[in-house]
Amino acid sequence: MPNSITAESPLAQQTDEQLCEQLRTGALSERGADHATDLLLERGWAPADIPLHAAAPDLRNFGQKLWTFIADCAWGKAPLLHAMWVLGGVIMATYFVLLVALEMSRLSMVGSLVSVLWVAFSCASHSFHAFCVWRCARNARVHALGQLARIYAGAVMGIWAIGIVMSIVMMVMGWLEPVPHG
User: Fold this and answer.
1) SS3 at position 123
2) Is the pLDDT of residue 134 over 90?
3) Which residues contact 36 (CB under 8 A, 6 or more apart)?
């Protein structure tokens, strides 16, 4: 016996095939998908036969969403936690991909190019991450966490600057010799 809400719903007027198609394509909101699932169960469908409405994430416009997220972090519009952890996670995932590419290309002629890309990406991404954390520190819910984030960002930038200067000095002084491949 269907309840009164189910019987009066616009979804109740649709056929089983239409409901299944909407569930498969993700055309329904979460509440609508739950309602459509309840309708199919009332009509005698087995739970295993009903398409999962949350099986795959929505990847439409993923590149645009990622670019918008990175721009919000750079402009200081994102929350501090997003700039610190989500952007850091994106950078770490990219590190992992580059590390795998570096390991796979060690025996080929592309290995030195990937090594240069690794160093360049490492410098650029750490600097960009620290910059974004600094810019988004004012968006922290707790003022003290924002100040700690700025200390972290300043320390990262300072360490990178000292490392770059020390590397240049060591190369000029001849203390940093290239490692022979063999």
Assistant:
1) helix
2) yes
3) 11, 19, 22, 23, 28, 53
pLDDT at 154: 93
Domain ranges (residues) in the chain: 4-49, 62-173
pLDDT bin (cut points 50, 70, 90) of residue 1 is very low
Q: What is the CA radius of gyration of the chain?
A: 26
Q: What angle do CA 110, 164, 116 make, to 5 degrees?
A: 5
Q: What is the mean pLDDT of residues 49-60?
A: 60
Of 38, 56, 55, the residue nearest 47 (C-alpha): 38
Nearest to 149 by CA among 137, 161, 159, 160: 137
Q: Residue 9 half-sphere exposure, CB side, CA atoms within 13 Å?
A: 19
Q: In terms of Cα–Cα distance, which of 118, 122, 108 is closest to 156?
A: 122
- Give the pLDDT band (50/70/90) at residue 55: very low
Nearest to 126 by CA among 156, 154, 147, 97: 156
Given a cut of 90, whether residue 147 has pLDDT beyond it is yes
Average pLDDT over residues 60-89: 88
Instruction: Region of 44 please: left (phi>0), alpha (psi -120 to 50) or beta.
Output: left
Whether the Cβ atoms of residue 78 and residue 136 lie closer than 8 Å to each other = yes
